[in-house]
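Hi everyone,

Forwarding the result from last night's run.
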Amino acid sequence: MNTTGRSWAEGAESVGAAESALPFEPADGPPPPPGHAARHTVAVLGAHLGGSMLAAILARAGIDVVLVDSPHDAGTPAGETTVPYTAEVFELLARRYEIPELSALGHFGQLPEELRKTSGVKRSIGFVYARPGKRVRPHQVVQFNVPGEHGESHLYRPDIEAWVHRLAVGYGSKVPQGRPTFTEVRGEAGEFTIELADGSAVGATFVVDMSGPDAPMLKRLGTGPALRPLRHSSRVLTAHLRGVRPLEQRVDPGTGGTPWTGGTTQVVFPGGWIQLVPFGDQRSGEASLTSVAVSLDAKLWPQRSASAEDDFDHLIRQFPDLEWQFEQATAVRPWASGEPWQYGANTTAGKGFIVLDRSAVRCDFTLSRDVTLTAELVHEAAAHIIAAALDGDWSTERFRALETFQASLIEHGDRLLRSALTATTDFRLWNAFCRVWLLHSMFAALSLKRARNDALASSGRPDRWRELEHYRGAGMWFPVYPGFVALFDDMERLLRQVADNRLAPGGAAERIFGQLRNACFIPPLFAFGDPTDRYYNFTPLKRIKVLLWAKRRAPYMVQRVLTPGATVLPSVER
C-alpha cells in the first residue's frame, strides 16, 4: 500500500464548499479590550460535532454561550457512520430543542447538496467474516439493508463539523475572533477564565469540557487518576484512504445482498475487525475516499511496528481478500493509532463544570458507538444545563444525575464492545451476536420515536420529557419493552462465559438463536432466529405483515412502537 504524507486538514478538500451552503454567516464580534475577558454564562470547550451541537442548543434556549476550539478538534479521529437509532436521537435533538437542521444529520437527503457530495448515504451494514491465510467463505457474510426512508449517513467529519459550527454561530453562540484554541483554564467556579492561543481570554460561569483526553478540567476532579482503561481494551488504527477497491469485486455479497460499498462494511476476524466507510457517490477507482478504522485485541494482534501504517500492512497481509482490496490504496489522512484506545472518566462533575463526551470517554467507532454516544450525551446535557441556567443553580450536586447517566452509557458501550470482540471467535457466534445488536438498535429507535411522539403530543405538560430521564439498562433511557433489556443481558452473560472458556462458541450461538426464535416480542417474519437467513431486506409487503402481527400477537408495549403514528414502518411519519 502506498502512502502520501498529507495531513487531516489537507484531506479536507471540501470544507470551504460545504460552508458556502450554510444558512448563517459567522457572528464574530470585535475582540474585548486588552486585559479584559468577555464574560459568558457557559463556555463549551471543543468545537467538534458534540460541542457545536450543544452550543447551538444552549444559544437557541437563550443562554449566553461561547464555543471555544480545542487543540485536538481537527486532528482527533471520530466516528463517521450512523444507524437508525442514531438518526432518532438526532431527530429528538431537532424537535425537543427546536434546532430543525440537526435532523439532517440522521436523514441524509436533508443535508445540503455540498455535504451530500462529500459524505454519503448508507444503505446497508454488512459483516464479512475472514480467517487468517484464507479467502472469505460465501456463507460467512451477513448484511442488513437499511429501509430507503431512513437515509442513514456516512458523515465526512471535516465538512459536517464546519457546518454544525456555523449552525451554532447562527443560533447565537459566541466564537472568539479567529477561532484560537484554548491553552489553559484558570479561576474557580463562577469566575473561570479560558486563556486562548492568541493571548486573549474569555470568561464563563460554567464550563463544559468536551476537548479530549488531556482535558484541563479533568485535573480538577481529585488527586487520583482522572481516566481509567475500559474492560474492552483494544488498540485502534485509523486513516482515510483513496483507491480502496470495492470488496464486492472480491467477495460476492450473494443472492439477496447488495454491494458492500453501498454501506458500512465490517470485516470481522478472530480478535478484531476493520470498519470501512466509503464517502460520496463515486465509491470505486483511484478517486474514491474510504474511512478505515481497525480495532485489535493486543494479545492476539500485538503491535509489530512503531508505524501504524506498517502495522496495518502486516495485518492485511494475513487476509488474501483484504490484501487485494488495499493493494493500491493511498492515505490522505495519516494513519493514527492508540493502545489502549478506550478510556472512561472516574468522575465527571466538579465545582462549576462538567467533563463530557470525548473528554470523559473514548470508544471504538464500530457499530456507530462514537457518533451515537455523542448525540445521546448532548441531549441529556442540554436538558441539565438549561434547567440550571433557569434557576441559577450551578452546584456540583445539580449535575450528579448527568454524571450517572454518562457513566451508565459508558458501561453499556463497554459491555457491547467487549461482547463483540468475544463474538469474533467464531462466525456462528458473530452471526448470532450481530442479530441481537441489530434488534437492539431497531427497537431502541422505534421506542425512542414513540416516547418522542408522546412527549410532543403533550405540549401543555411541563413534565412531558420526564419519561426520557430514566435509565432502563442496556443503553436504554426511554420506555422500552423489558424483554429487549433481558435479551441483551442474557447475550452478554453467555459471551462472558465464552470469554472465560466456560462455554463453547457454538453452544453460546445455539442458545442465542434459540432465544431469538422463542421471544414473543420479535416479529417471526424477521427470521432472526434462523442462522441461515443472513440477509435482512424490509420490503413493503413485509412491513404490512409485521403490522398485522403487531396488532394481533405482540405484547402491548411492542405493539405501541410498531403501529402507525409511532414508527417508520408504514410511512416516513415524524
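Residues 1-29, 566-574 have pLDDT under 50 and may be disordered.

Cheers,
N.
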